[in-house]
Automatic annotation (TrEMBL):
Entry's localization field: Peroxisome
Keyword terms, alphabetized: Fatty acid biosynthesis, Fatty acid metabolism, Lipid biosynthesis, Lipid metabolism, NADP, Oxidoreductase, Peroxisome, Phosphoprotein
One Pfam family linked to the record: adh_short_C2
Region (Disordered): 1-20
Family the entry assigns: Belongs to the short-chain dehydrogenases/reductases (SDR) family.
Organism of provenance: Sphingobium phenoxybenzoativorans
Record-given protein name: Peroxisomal trans-2-enoyl-CoA reductase
Catalysed reaction, written as an equation: (2E)-hexenoyl-CoA + NADPH + H(+) = hexanoyl-CoA + NADP(+); (2E)-octenoyl-CoA + NADPH + H(+) = octanoyl-CoA + NADP(+); (2E)-tetradecenoyl-CoA + NADPH + H(+) = tetradecanoyl-CoA + NADP(+); (2E)-decenoyl-CoA + NADPH + H(+) = decanoyl-CoA + NADP(+)
InterPro entries: NAD(P)-bd_dom_sf, Peroxisomal_t2-enoyl-CoA_red, SDR_fam
Role: Participates in chain elongation of fatty acids. Catalyzes the reduction of trans-2-enoyl-CoAs of varying chain lengths from 6:1 to 16:1, having maximum activity with 10:1 CoA. Has no 2,4-dienoyl-CoA reductase activity.
SUPFAM superfamilies found in the cross-reference section: NAD(P)-binding Rossmann-fold domains
Length: 301
C-alpha cells in the first residue's frame, strides 16, 4: 500500500523565512485611491488578522472606513487592531469568531451592526486548505475544508443578507475565492468549495438583487502572504513559475481590488468574478505536493 503524502507544517518554526508584507508596508504603501474614498462606510472582513484580510483592513481604514475583523486567533486580531491604531490613530473592531459556527456568525453580524449602526460591505476572506493528493484526503480533512470555505462563507452571506433585508438597507458582498478555472491539482477540496462559492454568488446576485444586495468574487492566484507557511519550501520555490508573468502577487494587490469593489465605482458590477493571477488561468500549474512523473516530459502516457 502507498503511504499518503502529508505535509503538516509547524507554523511557529523559526527557521522558515517570514513571508508577506510587513506592517510598515501596510501603513505606508502607496494607493491609487483618494484618501476619503470609503469615508463613512463600514466593512466587515473575515480572516482580517493576517495576509490579504489584514492588508484590506489597513487600506480600508486608510481610506476612511470603519472596519471590523474576525478570525479564530485572538492574538492575531489584537495585534492587527493595535498596529492599525498605532499607525492610523483609528480603532477597529475585533471579534473572535469561527465562520464555521453559524450561531457565532449571527452574533458577529449583530455586534458589528450595533457597534457601527450597520454594515455596508462584507468581505469573506477567511479560508484555507492543505496540499494533498485528493485520493488520500481523510473524511475529516475534506469536511474541514468544505466547512470552512463553503459553509463558513455561506453563513456569513446569509446572516448579512437577512440583516440588510430587515433594515431595508443595501448590501455588498465580496467573496475571496481562488483561481479554479482549470482546477488545481492537490487542492481538489478547496476547488470544490471555491467553485461552490462562485456559483452561489452568481445565483444570489440575481436572487438578492430585489434587496439591493450585490455580490462579487475575487479569485487570487499566487499571492505571497503569511499563509504560505502551509506549504513546503520546495513547493514555494516554484510557485512564481506557475503563471506567464513568473511572479507572485502581494496582499496589497488584493486589498486594492477589494477597495474597488467596496467603492461606488463598482456600483454596477454584480455576480462577477475578478481573476487576479498574472495569467495563471491561461498558463501554469502548481503542484504543491510535488509533480507526479506522469506529467513530466517523457513520462508515461
Ligand atoms: C491546497 C494547495 C493549494 C495549492 C497551492 C497553490 C498556491 C497558489 C494557489 C493558492 C491557493 C491558496 C493558497 C492559500 O490559501 S494560502 C493561505 C493558507 N492559509 C490557510 O490555509 C489557513 C487556514 N487553514 C486551516 O485552518 C486549515 O488548513 C483547515 C482549512 C484544514 C482547517 O483547519 P481545522 O483547524 O479545522 O482543522 P485541523 O487543522 O484540525 O484539521 C482537520 C483535518 O484536516 C486534515 N488535515 C489538516 N491539515 C492537514 C495537512 N497538512 N495534510 C493532510 N491533512 C490535513 C486532517 O484530517 C485533520 O484531522 P486530524 O488533525 O484529526 O488529522
Ligand atoms: N495566498 C494565496 O496565494 C491565496 C489565498 N487564497 C485565499 O485567500 C484568503 C486569504 O488567504 P491569505 O491571506 O493568503 O492567508 P492567511 O492564512 O493569512 O489568511 C487566512 C485567514 O483566514 C482565517 N480563518 C481561517 N479559518 C477560519 C475560520 N474557520 N473562521 C474564521 N477565520 C478563519 C485565519 O485567521 P485565524 O487563524 O485567526 O482563524 C486567517 O487570518 C484565504 O481564503 C485563502 O485560502 C486564495 C488564493 C490564493
Amino acid at each position: 500500500m502507498t503511504a499518503p503524502k502529508i505535509f503538516r507544517p509547524d507554523l511557529n518554526d523559526p527557521t522558515r523565512p517570514k513571508r508577506g508584507l510587513t506592517e510598515q508596508d501596510l501603513a505606508e504603501k502607496a494607493t491609487v485611491y483618494r484618501p476619503d474614498l470609503l469615508d463613512g462606510q463600514t466593512l466587515l472582513i473575515t480572516g482580517g488578522g493576517s495576509g490579504m484580510g489584514k492588508a484590506a483592513a489597513f487600506l480600508a481604514v486608510r481610506l476612511g472606513a470603519n472596519v471590523a475583523i474576525c478570525g479564530r486567533d485572538v492574538e492575531k486580531l489584537e495585534r492587527t487592531r493595535d498596529v492599525i491604531a498605532k499607525e492610523t490613530g483609528k480603532e477597529i473592531f475585533i471579534q473572535t469568531t469561527t465562520i464555521r459556527d453559524p450561531e457565532a456568525v449571527e452574533e458577529l453580524i449583530g455586534s458589528v451592526h450595533d457597534k457601527f449602526g450597520g454594515i455596508n460591505t462584507v468581505v469573506n476572506n477567511a479560508g484555507g486548505q492543505f496540499p494533498q493528493d485528493a485520493i488520500d484526503f481523510t473524511r475529516k480533512g475534506w469536511l474541514a475544508v468544505i466547512d470552512t470555505n463553503l459553509n463558513g462563507t455561506w453563513w456569513m452571506m446569509q446572516e448579512a443578507a437577512k440583516r440588510w433585508r430587515t433594515d431595508g438597507k443595501p448590501g455588498n458582498i465580496i467573496n475571496i475565492v481562488a483561481n479554479v478555472e482549470r482546477g488545481m491539482p492537490q487542492a481538489a477540496h478547496t476547488c470544490a468549495a471555491r467553485a461552490g462559492v462562485i456559483y452561489l454568488s452568481k445565483t444570489l446576485a440575481t436572487e438578492w438583487a430585489p434587496f439591493n444586495i450585490r455580490i462579487n468574487c475575487i479569485g487570487p492566484g499566487v499571492i505571497e502572504t503569511e499563509g504560505f507557511a502551509m506549504y513546503p519550501e520546495e513547493a514555494l520555490a516554484r510557485f512564481h513559475q506557475a503563471n506567464p508573468m513568473k511572479m507572485r502577487g502581494d496582499a496589497w494587490d488584493v486589498a486594492e481590488a477589494i477597495a474597488y469593489f467596496a467603492s461606488p465605482a463598482a456600483r454596477f458590477i454584480n455576480g462577477d468574478l475578478m481573476i487576479l493571477d498574472g495569467g495563471q488561468a491561461q498558463w501554469g500549474v502548481i503542484w504543491p505536493g510535488g509533480m507526479p512523473d506522469y506529467f513530466n516530459e517523457g513520462g508515461a502516457a
